[in-house]
Amino acid sequence: MSSQQQQKRVAEQDGEHANGAKRSRALAITNGEVKQEQRAQGGEEAGQGGQGEGALVAVVQAMEEPQINIRMAVSHFHCHTCVLPLKPPTFECEAGHVVCRGCRGSHVQACAGAGTYVPCAKLDGIVRDAKVACAYEAYGCTSWVVYHESSDHHRSCRFAPCFCPAPGCGHFTSPARLAEHFFSHHAWPVTEVDYAKPCKLAVPGPEEKLVLVGKADGSVFLVSPCAFGAATAVSLVCVRACGDAAAGAPHYTCNLWAEVAGNALLLTSVVASSDLAGGFPATDKIMFLPLPPLLYGESGEPPALMARIDKVGASTIRSRSPSATPPSSLPRRMLQ
User: Fold this and answer.
1) How far is Cα 179 from Cα 190, in angstroms, rounded to an integer?
2) How many CA atoms are closer than 13 Å to the CA of 229, on its beta-carbon side?
3) What number of CA atoms fall less than 13 Å from residue 128's CA on the CB side?
4) For residue 317, how many other CB atoms are within 10 A of its CB?
5) 168-214 pLDDT, tens per residue?
6) What are phi and psi for residue 307, nearest 5 degrees?
7) Contact partners, residue 80, CB within 8 Å, separation at least 6
8) Is pLDDT at 28 greater than 50 in this prediction?
9) Which of 72, 114, 67, 81 is nearest to 95 (CA)?
10) For residue 266, how many other CB atoms are within 10 A of its CB?
């Protein structure tokens, strides 16, 4: 090969490299022209058998507005009058104070420049979109919630931490992690249960507890016994910090019953909630099923304990009061 041919070949290779570099740089640009070109290519590919459908989805995702995490003074998001998180629509007085719609009347009494208010449409957009990580992120919650709605979320968050009631333990974490702790550190049996279906349990001993976990939503329930005169009192509580009255929190009712040799006793009650901060719930604070000695077999063995937990609406809870059913009223439908 002559020297002229070699120089021509090198020039062609350099041109190819340069063109490739230009194409790479063009693809790296994220302006509207490149996106439109990619969309057009995706449309052509889609018309040729749908092969460009994935590329089109990728382009649409790329066009979504990016999110950022920022730090700002919390005062920017609080009403100047009630000092609570601002909820749109918001208003600004002549003195530059931003207040909630409902605070305009009371703000007049405290601010001389509150005669005229101007709607803060741009601020409303920010207040509507500003989100914060859940305060219980360290306990497993991955939710980002609108700032002015965060208190409502925290009242019903299922990751709100609770206490281990075992004497001298003091472990503090989410109910789901507590269930793991109960099993690994205290050897308390953990059983998954279906709502609206009876579950057969062994009456726990004085130092033992039973842990039930709802299959549908992961809610944790603790079954614990305590001495009640000559009888054994068995109670069931939902382990959660948010409580029954929290908006959005699920509600439950429970049926506990036991039967031996024709003797039976049934308890129907609303399931109380507890974060177990004070240890195991006292019998004077919650409903419990008393198991008198007459229910025990000739060997002195405790009877089989049956439990059925139902997930119900808040209206059902308000209309239903706890009650104990006489032994003769044990419903057969619950034994199915």
Assistant:
1) 7
2) 5
3) 9
4) 16
5) 898 999 999 999 999 999 999 999 999 999 999 887 776 778 999 99
6) -135, 140
7) 97, 98, 99, 103, 107, 111
8) no
9) 114
10) 21
